[in-house]
Amino acid sequence: MLKACSLALLALSCPLMIPGTVQVMAADVPAEQPQAVATTMSKKGNVRFGPSTQAKVVATLEVGAAVEVLGIAQGLPEWYVVRFPREGSAWIHQKVIQLDASGKTAKVIEDRARVRDDSRQGGNIVAELALGEEVEIKERARNGDWVPVYPPSAVAYVHKSVLVIPQGKVAGLEEAEQQANKLDDVWAEAQARYATYKEALDDIAQNPDLAAMLDWEYLDMQLAQVADGHPNVRVQHSAKRLKDRIAPVVSAALQVQRAHKITPIRDVPGKPPVVVRVDPLPKPDTPKNDPPAKPPIDPLPKPDKPVDVADLKNAAAQAPAASSFAAQGFLEERAVAGTGTNHVIIDKNGKICAFVKTKPGVDLQLSEFFWRLVGVKGESQPIDAEKHGQGGGPIPLVLVEDVALLQ
Questions:
Q1: pLDDT tens for each residue of 36-73
Q2: In 3D, which of 351, 405, 312 has the Cα closest to residue 4?
Q3: Residue 41: count of CB within 10 angstroms of its CB
Q4: What are the extents of the domains in the chain?
Q5: In whole angstroms, how far apart are CA 379 and each of 116, 155, 311, 340, 370?
Q6: Would you list the DSSP string of 283-347?
Q7: β-strand partners of 137
Q8: Do 345 and 354 touch, CB atoms closer than 8 A?
Q9: Which of 49, 105, 16, 18 is nearest to 330 (CA)?
Q10: Which of 86, 226, 268, 352 has fewest C-beta within 10 Å?
Q11: Spatial CB neighbours of 54, under 8 Å, sequence gap ≥ 6
């Protein structure tokens, strides 16, 4: 048995460019928020919570009012995502923020803290803020426990017919949308991959070799791409938090793999492979003085000596629970015969990707999220094509237990 591996975080070497692949690395993904396009209203029009005339109104802006366009609405090119207007109303409960010494800004101290457009629980949800985000405190009176704020990361939607968009900026917005879609796919894959890896961690007492042989380095690289480049601040925070929390697992697994010359595997044997929607990320360079890694033995590579995973077991005990959505997209009220519900999730291609209804006994109002970009969690059951009549194959019906705003 080898000595227990050190838990010190290993620095990853610079990635290689692999010919024939589309790289989603730091060179391609901006490390900062995408540059907003400053524009104005071409006519009096409404800013809405979602990309639909059915979505509730945030504010009505006059001709010439300034608007910051952040991108194109997912799957709905007639609508633009804009920075939440300062003319909009936004309130947050004092229990979820901590004011700084100046009293002009505050830090969010609870993940998924909700900002509403009124100083009451029944107000429309403006945004869900990540732990650690900052908000500006408005210079107006509080209303009881509610504090008037401006949330810089919040967004809204405006139809392109009421905006002055310089033609030279359209291509940049379209390119930003493509990049955002790519990072959405990386984030979805990373969450799904961690869910399968977490099962291996939970089973580490019975099968220690498996958790040690998974490609934790690849997962770590994916999370880094999302944390550094995703246009959504909340997604950035979530990816960075997961990356930081699994760092001890990544480090311990890398120590075992390098000590035993193990070639890591990306998918868990016996489990369905994680769907890859973007080309694989490049692997770090292998030191030239190391002997070549031994080829994997199907279905699971076996090291020459027993693997000492004491440190990995300790790190596994601290790994966070996996979190992934049963479906994500825009939540719309739409009756489809044969499904037993009047609510659907629309994906980035404008198609129904899930039917949804609140799980019995769960205190949740789906109407709060109409035409909002959301992720839903809950048990799923397939509805066959002959029942839903939408063409294609089965579409899941999700019994929703939780809804998270994604934008």
A1: 889 999 999 999 999 999 999 999 999 999 999 998 99
A2: 312
A3: 19
A4: 37-83+158-172, 91-153, 174-316, 327-405
A5: 28, 29, 34, 15, 21
A6: PBPPPTTSPPPPPPPSS----SS----HHHHHHHTTPPPP---SEEEEEEE---TTSS-SEEEE-
A7: 149
A8: yes
A9: 49
A10: 86
A11: 333, 370, 371
Residue 247 tokens, joined = 């760092």
* pLDDT tens by residue, 247-285: 999 999 999 999 889 999 999 998 888 877 666 555 444
Measured CA angle at 253 (ends 250, 255), to 5 deg = 110
pLDDT band at 160 (very low <50, low <70, confident <90, very high): very high
Q: Which two tokens stand for residue 358?
A: 């609140």
**Please, which residues bridge with residue 216 across strands?**
none
Which strands form 125-129's sheet, in the order they lie side by side?
Answer: 97-99, 105-108, 134-137, 146-150, 91-93, 113-116, 125-129
Show the tokens assigned to 282: 């490049």
pLDDT of 364: 92
Average pLDDT in the chain? 83
pLDDT bin (cut points 50, 70, 90) of residue 11 is very low
Q: Which two tokens stand for residue 325?
A: 């959505």
Mean pLDDT of 359-373: 93
For residues 112-125, give the mean pLDDT.
Answer: 91
Q: How far apart are the first and last CA of the chain?
A: 49
CA distances from 16 to 19, 66, 187, 283 (A): 9, 43, 21, 7
Contact between 92 and 145 under an 8 Å Cβ cutoff? The reply is no
Q: What is the CA radius of gyration of the chain?
A: 23
Q: Is 90 exceeded by the pLDDT of residue 171? A: no
Q: What is the CATH number of domain 37-83+158-172?
A: 2.30.30.40
User: Higher model confidence: residue 328 or residue 10?
Assistant: 328
SS3 405: strand
How far is 49 from 42, CA to CA, in rounded Å?
20
Between residues 273 and 106, the one the model is more confident about: 106
Amino acid at 261: K
Using CA atoms, how far apart are residues 374 and 405, in angstroms rounded to an integer? 5
